[in-house]
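Standup notes
- DV: blocked on the single-chain target, sequence here:
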Amino acid sequence: MQPSRALELRPGEVALFGYGSLLWRPSFERTYGRPYTRQTEVAYLSGFRRVWDALLPNRTFYFRSGPGERCYPEHIVYLNVRPAKAAMNGLLYVITRQDLSGFDEREVTYDRFDVGPLIRGVTVTGGPVYVYASKPTYVAEEKWPRERAAIRQTYLDIVESGLEDLGAEFRTAYEASTDQAMPMNIITDERDEQPVR
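- DV (later): unblocked, structure below
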């Protein structure tokens, strides 16, 4: 880990620690609603690692289970953070408190926590550093078949795009602090524009 850098937040600003799809700037900007022009900072969240156990109830994504057959998994699985004797890397974005509502809506099955004291590699002053962690009722406590809990290939592609942009050193730290996605749960997902009821 490199020496700590300084990040001073102005009044009304907060920092977001992105660790999954938010590693890819276009994914962040889709929720932000405009180009992000500030520099992102690579930082570490001490005492946590990435795991594949965040559940989102699904009515939209499906995979082909046979010729002409669609299977809609009960849940889609996303990355989450869990306590561990480790530190995981991610990106710090600076946004305003007004911008938080869009990210709260995006992360509707997650709670937002201030982890400022646990951030390493960047010394943040002037405001909180937030991370999203899955609400307990949306955490998978056991391994399920993909019909019940599937990992979207398109989500993996978004994370991969972020890793490609961030380079080999970041990828190495990411892999060291992330559980592997279960291959049997990965689906070639398609999206239904008229969700099933």
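- Follow-up: The chain is about 20% helix and 40% strand.
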